[in-house]
Amino acid sequence: MTADHVFAALASPARRRLLRLLLDEGAQPAGRLAVRFDMSRPSVSEHLKVLKDAGLVAESRRGRERHYRLEAGPLMEIREWLTPYERFWRERLSALSTLLDEMDDLGPDDEHGPDGLNGRNGEQPHV
Amino acid sequence: MTADHVFAALASPARRRLLRLLLDEGAQPAGRLAVRFDMSRPSVSEHLKVLKDAGLVAESRRGRERHYRLEAGPLMEIREWLTPYERFWRERLSALSTLLDEMDDLGPDDEHGPDGLNGRNGEQPHV
DNA sequence: ACTATATGTAGGATTTTTCCTACGCATCAA
DNA sequence: TTGATGCGTAGGAAAAATCCTACATATAGT
């Protein structure tokens, strides 16, 4: 439920694969998910529990089956957590292109066109 | 260097805090980062190593200090990994608002205005 | 050359994670 | 009711992560 739980849950490749399966194929009973893994069914069941505790999946009981569905909310919180780093990333990119421009001014050694995707006009942070 | 390494690196609160410090305050020598933690300096040093192996920080030696700087590229790959889930998330949202509209049609019990941020007009996936 | 500083590495204790098999519980079908 | 099916939990072994205290290395200053 906390960000800690979400990050910890995403640390396992098996759990990330579970999320992807639920995304691509929709909600499914636990057993149908488990057969895809090179791992015992109870182990998959525990992974599902970790995902559930992190709020990444929800379960609904239907007869003797338990259907798990993706709950993408926490992933959007991860996305928000990443946002400030995106700003940093863009600034690095524009700093790089500024540097390339300066190199062009000093002495163009070849004629590779400027293929940057941004306008080469940002502030330049810690380089 | 792989996505596995990046997700695993982000699983530790201490390492996420290191990244945040480097983002907010810029590159710093290892020792200056370490004093902020309720943990021995060598332990912080190992966390920095994990981050470096994941490509999340880079080090540059300056005299007897080692400055660590944020390397945001891998975080942008995480962002891309999240993208398909964002689509799923939006579809859920619009499905919810569609549902709310139907409830309005059947019998409006109060007059809360529709405060959804989207137009309530998407496809409705697995609800 | 000698000492102090900045930092990584070694080795180990402790905790956590991961995975298994065995079992219990609920549901469906005869 | 009886037997099969779907699934979680218990208990434990093995592996990995976490954190510590020495210790080694390299640079700076005197």
UniProtKB/TrEMBL annotation, chains A, B:
<feature type="domain" description="HTH arsR-type">
    <location>
        <begin position="1"/>
        <end position="90"/>
    </location>
</feature>
<feature type="region of interest" description="Disordered">
    <location>
        <begin position="102"/>
        <end position="127"/>
    </location>
</feature>
<dbReference type="InterPro" id="IPR036390">
    <property type="entry name" value="WH_DNA-bd_sf"/>
</dbReference>
<dbReference type="InterPro" id="IPR011991">
    <property type="entry name" value="ArsR-like_HTH"/>
</dbReference>
<dbReference type="Pfam" id="PF12840">
    <property type="entry name" value="HTH_20"/>
</dbReference>
<dbReference type="InterPro" id="IPR001845">
    <property type="entry name" value="HTH_ArsR_DNA-bd_dom"/>
</dbReference>
<dbReference type="GO" id="GO:0003700">
    <property type="term" value="F:DNA-binding transcription factor activity"/>
</dbReference>
<protein>
    <submittedName>
        <fullName>Helix-turn-helix transcriptional regulator</fullName>
    </submittedName>
</protein>
<dbReference type="InterPro" id="IPR036388">
    <property type="entry name" value="WH-like_DNA-bd_sf"/>
</dbReference>
